Structures are given as structure tokens and as C-alpha cells.
User: What shape does this take?
Amino acid sequence: MAGLVLSGCAIKPSSQSLPIPTKRFITNPSSINLLHPKDPIFSPNFHGFSRWAVKVSAPLRIPSIDQQDLDLERERISSLDEEIVQEDKFDAGAPPPFKLTDIRAAIPKHCWVKDPWRSMSYVVRDVAIVLGLAAAAASLNNWLVWPLYWAAQGTMFWALFVLGHDCGHGSFSNNAKLNSVVGHLLHSSILVPYHGWRISHRTHHQNHGHVENDESWHPLTEKTFKSLDWMTRTLRFTLPFPMLAYPFYLWNRSPGKSGSHFDPSSNLFVPAEKKDVITSTICWTTMFALLFGLNFVVGPVQMLKLYGIPYLINVMWLDFVTYLHHHGHEDKLPWYRGKEWSYLRGGLTTIDRDYGWINNIHHDIGTHVIHHLFPQIPHYHLIEATEAAKPVLGKYYREPKKSSPIPFHLLGELVRSLKKDHYVSDTGDVLYYQTDDKLSKEK
Assistant: This one.
């Protein structure tokens, strides 16, 4: 048997065979020396191994690996790595693997319940703070106090807007008349035409993420952008002007659109909404007349300090927050048109923001993704609803950066966005912001 194995390996054994032990067990191991010098294997005349022959063929020269082959192999490995990275990269513009009903099902049922008493408690709280701040500032009338008052009161005006915003969505209560009355009182007090805004804001939610049909802070197409005169382009993209845009938007809408929130015949509205728009315009005019009359009672300077500057701070908050809901994320987010747009895909392009201490003051309006998809949810349930929906949303939900008590970090994101998010292409159905190099260098 051994001979067959050896011959198969091309090894020829010698004819001389070594002695085979006759005993099966070794009884005295110390008496045996396997490598004793007198053994035949150590004898100079022993030629047993010399008769073993091994037939091995080896090349005379080992071929070298060509450098070009190495480079090709490296390129192949690199391309494979790139393919793996591309597979792992998330495409925010791709249709999501879930439906709106899947998100809705994940949200607890009690999150949909509207409590008018709880909603009214926020109104009472905010109005009391507004009146208290005004009384304290007027009483102290100190230039060390006024700047603090302006910041605080302007933020509270913005909080009043958010509560009126909930009335407009119907998330304040199930009572339409209560929503309308409270909404008019709150919004008229800060010079917002309630129904005019409510209707256009509804259009914004119904068309969020659509290039042409969205209503507020939608992108300009390249053609529209390049048609803007130098002044309009500068005002839209250079701070602080974009943060003062809201009153002008109420009167004239955005570039590329026409109409007014005060005009019942505007193409913003359908004929059945004419009466509502007139009502809101009358309320706005009444508030404006009241403010104008107070100039003669307390003086224009005092009115500027008590109301005018806080109103501007409120406008800045409104433009700041609403802009960052739809712009400025570190990843480029898509806009849609045509068949690629859907209510779900458009809503998923919105962004949640953390405002630190301001979250509670402005009623968690920074929790915006779920609000956009389901505006009927009251603001006091938005955080819980968002947490419940996150497992369904997956990567389509972008976790907001944690804020310090005052959200100064968002100023940097605003500046970066205004510097690079200028327009989208005139063609295509899934679009991303592009940058005008000349405007970017000017900034």
C-alpha cells in the first residue's frame, strides 16, 4: 500500500528495508534509544536515503507581475468600493417604501384628540404675558429695558401667530366658529388677515414641495431667477431683507406669482371664499386704525417702542422659522413637479428644527414634518406623534441638531442656505437647488 502511495508521488523507495519491531508494546522505554550513535542511520556507509529520488519540476524563472496589471486590479477594487458606497447612500428623492396610511397608523389615537380648553389655556397664557410685558416696559421706560422687551415681546407676538395658525388648520378645536373667532383676534392683533392667510397656507400644505404650486418659500425656476432685477434679487437673498419679507408677501405674494391676501378677487381664492376674505380684511383694517389712533394718545415714539419694533421682531421670527422648515439642511433635499410629486413625497422634504428654550414658547412649531403631513394634530401632541412615526419614516426623517438654549446655530444654516440655494432647473421632475456663482461671490 505504501508503495502505491509513493509511486503515485513519483518517489522510488530503495529495496533495502528497515527492521520491523517484533514487540507490540514497549515494556522498558529507558532501554530504547531511538537516536543511538551506533544505529545504522548514523553510519558513514549507510546509503539508504541516497536511494530515494524525488521528481520535482520547477520553472527556471518566476514571471514578474506587470505594473499595468496591478493598476487594473486596483481600479477594479476601487470601482467595487464605489458601488458599495453608492448602494449605501440614501436617495432622499426616491419614492418612500411606505404610505401615508402607514404613518397615520403608527401615531397613537389620543394624539388626534383636540382639547379646546387646553388650547384656550395657551391663549390666556400668551395674551397675559404680552400684556404684562407691555405694562412693565411702559412703566419702567428705561433704555436698558427696552431691548430686552423688544426681543421678548416680538417672540410672544410670534407665539400668538402660531396659536392663530392652529386655528386656521382646525387643530385648535373641532368648533369652526371658535377657531374663526380666536384666529381673527390673535392674527388681527399682529396685522395678519386671518382668512386670507388661512386659505393661502392651506394651499401651501396641499402642495408642499411642488416647485410651481407651493405657496410660500418655494424655489424660483432658473428662468424666473434670471429675470429678476438686481434690487429684487438682492432683497431676496441678502440678510436681513429676506427676514422682513412677510408683510410684502401678504400684499404681493412671491416673485412669479400675483395676487394679494387682502383682495377677495385675487386668484388665491375661489368665489365662495370672498366673504371670508372681506371679513378678515375688515378686521385687519380695524386693528391698523386702532394702532394709528394710539399714536395720538401715547405718541408715535412710544408706539414704535411698544408695538412697532416687537412687530418687526415677530416678522423676523416668522420668516426665519418658515424658511428653515423648507431650506438649509446639510443634505440637499428634492423639490418636485409633474408626476413625481405626491402629497407624501412633498411633505417628507420638510425639516424639523430644535429651537432650545423657544420650543415651548412658540408651541413646538419646529416639530414640522408630522405637522405638514397631518396638520389636524394639535401642537401639544406633535412631539409624541413624531416619536411614534420615526420607525416608519426611517431615513426620510432627518433628526434636528440639538440646540443650545438660544438657537444661534440656526443663523449659520440660514446664511449658508441663502448663499447657495438660489434656483432650480426649468426642466425635470425631481429637482435640487442650484447656485448662482456670481450672486454667491457677491455675498
Remarks:
- The longest strand covers residues 11-12.
- Residues 1-37, 46-54 have pLDDT under 50 and may be disordered.
- Strands lie at 11-12, 53-54, 335-336, 430-431.
